[in-house]
Model the fold of this input.
Amino acid sequence: MTEYRNTVPENWFVDPVKLGVPGVSNGGVGDDNPLAWQADALCSQTDPEAFFPEKGGSTRDAKRICSSCSVKSECLEFALENDERFGIWGGLSERERRRFRRRA
Done:
């Protein structure tokens, strides 16, 4: 019969801030991670469907949320660097990002 020990591994606790909990400022923790900005993104605290509307659907709610987001520029930069083709990123729709790229 296998004996189970009541021991807890030393690394059992993971600080949620280090994981990048949405809406919790990381206070500089994990800033070497290029995606650390996502922990502060307002969209991670809201309904994702607003940011990926069906064709012809309204983008108004998503853009309103983006307008007050502290990491809006990082989000847009990520979308442009990774050629994100769907959704609202950094306050811009797919069409608006294409126009932005052409002008740059």
The mean pLDDT is 81. Residues 16-103 form one domain. DSSP finds four helices and no strands in the chain.
